[in-house]
From TrEMBL, chain A:
Signal peptide: none annotated. GO terms for molecular function: electron transfer activity. It comes from Chelatococcus asaccharovorans. Coiled coil: none annotated. The electron transfer flavoprotein serves as a specific electron acceptor for other dehydrogenases. It transfers the electrons to the main respiratory chain via ETF-ubiquinone oxidoreductase (ETF dehydrogenase). One of its GO terms (biological process) is carboxylic acid catabolic process. Belongs to the ETF beta-subunit/FixA family. This is Electron transfer flavoprotein subunit beta. Heterodimer of an alpha and a beta subunit. Keywords: Electron transport, Transport. Residues 23-211 form the Electron transfer flavoprotein alpha/beta-subunit N-terminal domain. The keyword Transport applies. InterPro entries: ET-Flavoprotein_bsu_CS, ETF_a/b_N, ETF_b, ETF_beta_N, Rossmann-like_a/b/a_fold.
UniProtKB/TrEMBL annotation, chain B:
It comes from the Bacteria. Belongs to the FAD-binding oxidoreductase/transferase type 4 family. This is FAD/FMN-containing dehydrogenase. One of its GO terms (molecular function) is catalytic activity. Its cofactor is FAD. One of its GO terms (biological process) is respiratory electron transport chain. Residues 36-217 form the FAD-binding PCMH-type domain. It comes from Chelatococcus asaccharovorans.
Length: 249, 474
C-alpha cells in the first residue's frame, strides 16, 4: 500500500508572531520555520504504519518555495521514502493546495493520504476536506487513532462530544489531530540517509493548476491585549459586577 | 511571635515588609533541596533600596545577623539562615524592576530581585540576548546570580556572571548606599570593588541593582543530543566542534546514563532523543547570526563525520524549537531528578578540560572504593571542565540528618582529594556558602585566605552579613 503525506513549511510553533509595521502581513524575515506540527504527526503516523508493515512506500509532498524542500528532507529523515516539491513562491490558498494535491494523487495513485488537520499559520482547516471532495474519496478528519484493515481504514475522530469512529473504504483521506501520536526525533543516521533519498521538483504550472488567490488580505492587526483584572472586596461586589458589568448572571 | 517588636524595626518599616509567622516564613528558612533548615526572627521583604538601607542600619545598631536571599535556589546553603534564630532573612524579590534597556550600548539595568527568566525575556523583547541560562532560571534572581557568580550552560561562549556585569549598586553593612551602576565597557579607576562583590555570597554587602551586558540575539540556533561511549569521546567531539564551528558553540554538556535514567524515570512524558541508551550523552547548542539552515547543515556535517569515525554512537538533531526545548529539558531536569531519587551529595568541581576523562575515572573509582552503596553520577559542562559529581545513596541509607551530614562530609573529602591531585577547584560555579566553608582553608593558599578574612573585616566589621558563609566563624 502506498501512502502520500502532505507537509507544510510554517513559522515555528514556538516563535512569537509579529505583525509587519505596515499591516500587510506577519514578519517572516529571519524567522525560524519548521514543519507544521500537525503534519509532523501525519508523517509520524505514516512511518508507524510502514513499520507495522501496513504501508510499503511513503511519498512526502510539499507546496511552497525552495526552502520547503528542507521540510520534505525532515519528513525523509523521519522515515518517508521520497519527496515531491511543488515549487512556487506565490501564496497558495487551501483550494489551490487541494487542486495541486489532487493532481499529485492522480499521478502517484496512493491508497491513503495523510495530512495535518490544519496548518498553524492560517489555521484554515480546509485542505483535507476539499481534497476529499475533489477526489470523491471518503475522509476521516481530526484523527485520534487509525487502524488500517484490508482495503479499509478505521479512523477514531476527536469530535465535540468525545470520540467517534468511522470506517472508510480505501483510498481515503485522513487528517491528524494533536493526540494521534508524538513525533520522533530525526536521528543523525536517518538525516544522512535522507540526503540520498530522491526529491523530485515540479510546479503548479507544470501540473496545470492556477494558484492565483481568490481572497484579498486587507489588513493584518495584532489581537487586542487582555484587559487587567480587578480585585473585589466582597462576594456581594463580585455578584454585582458579574450581573451589571459582565452581564453573565 | 507578635511579642518580638524586632527592637524597634517594626516602627521604621511598613508592616507588609515584615513576615513573622511560621507559616509565612517557612519558604525562606530552608534551602530548596531540604538539606538546611534555619530559624529567623523575621523575614524582611523590602520594596526599595531605602528600606534595605534602613534594615541594615538597624541590624548594625542591634548586632542582628542578616541573611540576604534571592530566589533561594542555591546549592550550598548560602541563602539559608543558621539555626540560632537570632537573625533576619533579607529577601530581595520585591526589588524587581527592569529600569532601563539600552540597545545602542547593549546594556540592561535591573534591580536585584528580578527573576532571571524575566530579564532574559525583557532582553529578547528588545531584540537582544542576556545569555545567562541555568536550570533554576524561572526562580533565581539577578542579585543571587551575581552574589554567587553563577555559571550555567553558556559559560563556554559568554563567560560567567562576572563577565556579564558592568556595574553594581549595593548597600553596606552599616546601611550606606553605594552607587556604581556604570554602563561602561572600560573603567580603570582604582580597585575593582564590583568584582570583589561578584561571588561574595552576601557576606560583604547587599547588592540592590546591576547594569548587565546584553548581546546580539543569534538569528539561528540548533540543538542536538549525541550518544557517546566515554567522556574522552565527548572531549574529542568538543575539540572537533570548536575547530569546525568556531565561536558558534553556545553549550556543550555531558551526562552519564545513570543520570539520564533518573531524569526519564521522574517524568513519563520525557523521551530519550537518541534511538537507544548509551553510556554517556552530550547536549549541544550552536547559535549564529547567519541563516538557520546553514547552521543546521554545518552541525549535521560535523556530527555526520563524527558518526562515521566512531566519535559518537548516535545523535538526534532537533527539527524544531519544541524538540530543542525537549532536549534541553532533559539536561535541566537533573537537579529535580536527583532530589527525588534519594539522599545525594553533589559536587561542583572543575578541572582542566583535557583532564576531565581521567578525573571522572579517578573519582568514580575512589567513590566506589570508599562508599560502595553510593552510585556515582556525572553531569556538567565539559567545555568549562566543570563536571558535577553526585554520589547518590539508597533512600533509607541514613538514620537522621546528622548521619547524612557526616557521610556527606566524608564524601566531600574523598572527591576533593581527587580534585587536588588534578589541581582543580572544589567549587566551580555554586560557591562556598555553608556547605564548603570548612573546606575552603584547606584548598586555598594560606596568604590568600588571610586576605579574604581581612576583606570581610573591612566590609563587615560587626560580622552581621551572612555569618558562617564562605568564611567559617572565627
Amino acid at each position: 500500500m502506498k501512502l502520500l503525506v502532505c507537509v507544510k513549511r510554517v513559522v515555528d510553533f514556538n516563535v512569537k508572531i509579529r505583525v509587519k509595521p505596515d499591516g500587510s502581513g506577519v514578519e517572516l524575515a529571519n524567522i525560524k520555520m519548521s514543519m507544521n506540527p500537525f503534519d509532523e504527526i501525519a508523517v509520524e503516523e505514516a512511518v508507524r504504519l510502514k513499520e507495522q508493515g501496513k504501508v510499503t512506500e511513503i511519498v512526502a509532498v510539499s507546496i511552497g518555495p525552495q526552502q520547503a524542500g528542507e521540510t520534505i528532507r525532515t519528513a525523509l529523515a523521519m522515515g518517508a521514502d521520497r519527496g515531491i516539491l511543488v515549487k512556487t513562491d506565490a501564496t497558495v490558498e487551501p483550494l489551490a493546495v487541494a487542486k495541486i494535491l489532487a493532481k499529485v494523487v492522480e499521478q502517484e495513485k496512493p491508497d491513503l493520504v495523510i495530512m495535518g488537520k490544519q496548518a498553524i499559520d492560517d489555521d484554515a482547516n480546509q485542505t483535507g476536506q476539499m481534497l476529499a471532495a475533489l477526489l470523491g474519496w471518503p475522509q476521516g478528519t481530526f484523527a485520534f487513532k487509525v487502524a488500517v484493515g484490508e482495503g479499509s481504514i478505521d479512523v477514531t475522530r476527536e469530535v465535540d462530544g468525545g470520540l467517534q469512529t468511522v470506517g472508510l473504504k480505501l483510498p481515503a483521506i485522513v487528517t491528524t489531530d494533536l493526540r494521534l501520536n508524538e513525533p520522533r526525533y530525526a536521528s543523525l543516521p536517518n538525516i544522512m540517509k535522507a540526503k540520498k533519498k530522491p526529491l523530485d521538483e515540479t510546479s503548479p504550472e507544470t501540473l496545470g493548476i492556477d494558484v492565483s488567490p481568490r481572497l484579498k488580505v486587507i489588513k493584518t492587526v495584532e489581537p487586542g491585549g487582555r484587559k487587567a483584572g480587578v480585585k473585589v472586596g466582597s462576594v456581594a461586589e463580585l455578584v454585582q459586577k458579574l450581573k451589571v458589568e459582565a452581564g453573565v448572571l | 511571635m507578635a511579642a518580638d517588636k524586632l527592637d524597634g524595626l517594626a516602627g521604621v518599616l511598613d508592616s507588609s515588609v515584615i513576615l513573622t509567622t511560621d507559616e509565612d516564613m517557612a519558604p525562606y528558612l530552608a534551602d530548596w533541596r531540604g538539606r538546611y533548615a534555619g530559624r529567623a526572627r523575621a523575614v524582611l521583604r523590602p520594596h526599595s533600596v531605602g528600606e534595605v538601607s534602613a534594615i541594615l542600619r538597624w541590624a548594625s545598631a542591634t548586632l542582628t545577623p542578616v541573611f540576604p536571599q534571592g530566589g533561594n535556589t542555591g546549592l550550598v546553603g548560602g541563602a539559608t539562615p543558621d539555626e540560632r534564630g537570632t537573625g533576619v532573612v533579607l529577601e530581595l524579590g520585591r526589588l524587581n524592576r527592569i529600569q532601563d534597556i539600552d540597545t545602542a550600548g547593549n546594556t540592561l539595568v535591573v534591580e536585584a530581585g528580578a527573576i532571571l527568566a524575566n530579564v532574559q525575556q525583557a532582553a529578547a523583547d528588545a531584540g537582544r540576548l542576556f545569555p545567562m541560562s541555568l536550570g533554576s532560571e524561572g526562580s533565581c534572581q539577578i542579585g543571587g546570580i551575581i552574589a554567587t557568580n553563577a555559571g550555567g550552560i553558556h559559560v563556554i561562549r559568554y563567560g560567567t556572571t562576572r563577565e556579564l556585569v558592568l556595574g553594581l549598586d549595593y548597600v553596606l553593612a552599616d546601611g550606606t548606599i553605594v552607587h556604581g551602576l556604570k554602563r561602561l565597557a572600560k573603567n580603570n579607576t582604582g580597585y575593582d570593588l564590583r568584582n570583589l562583590l561578584i561571588g561574595s555570597e552576601g557576606t560583604l554587602a547587599v547588592i540592590t541593582a546591576a547594569a548587565l551586558k546584553l548581546f546580539p540575539r543569534p538569528a539561528a540556533s540548533a540543538s542536538a543530543c549525541c550518544a557517546v561511549a566515554s567522556p574522552q569521546k565527548a572531549v574529542d567531539l568538543l575539540s572537533l566542534l570548536r575547530e569546525r564551528l568556531v565561536g558558534r558553540i553556545s553549550s556543550f554538556e555531558l551526562m552519564c546514563d545513570g543520570e539520564m535514567g533518573l531524569v526519564l524515570a521522574g517524568d513519563a512524558s520525557l523521551r530519550l532523543p537518541v534511538a537507544a541508551r548509551a553510556p554517556w550523552y552530550v547536549f549541544i547548542e550552536v547559535a549564529d547570526s547567519g541563516g538557520e539552515s546553514v547552521l543546521v547543515e554545518a552541525l549535521t556535517a560535523v556530527l555526520g563525520r563524527c558518526l562515521e569515525d566512531g566519535t559518537i554512537l548516535d545523535a538526534a538533531i532537533a527539527q524544531n524549537e519544541a524538540q530543542a526545548k525537549a532536549i534541553w529539558h532533559l539536561r535541566f531536569a537533573v537537579s529535580e531528578a536527583n532530589r527525588r531519587a534519594g539522599p545525594n551529595v553533589s559536587h561542583d568541581t572543575s578541572v582542566a578540560t583535557a583532564d576531565v576523562p581521567a578525573f571522572l575515572a579517578a573519582v568514580s573509582a575512589a567513590l566506589k572504593d570508599r562508599f560502595p552503596p553510593a552510585r556515582p553520577l556525572f553531569v556538567g559542562h565539559v567545555g568549562d571542565g566543570n563536571i558535577h559529581v553526585v554520589a547518590l545513596f539508597p533512600r533509607d541509607g541514613f538514620q537522621g540528618p546528622a548521619a547524612f551530614e557526616a557521610t556527606a562530609s566524608a564524601v566531600n573529602d574523598c572527591v576533593f582529594a581527587v580534585v587536588q591531585r588534578f589541581n582543580g577547584s572544589i567549587s566551580a560555579e555554586h560557591g562556598i556558602g555553608r556547605s564548603l566553608a570548612g573546606h575552603l582553608p584547606g584548598h586555598t593558599d594560606p596568604a590568600a585566605y588571610r586576605l579574604m578574612r581581612g576583606i570581610k573585616q573591612l566590609y563587615d566589621p560587626l560580622g552581621i552579613l551572612n555569618p558562617g558563609k564562605v568564611l567559617s566563624r572565627a
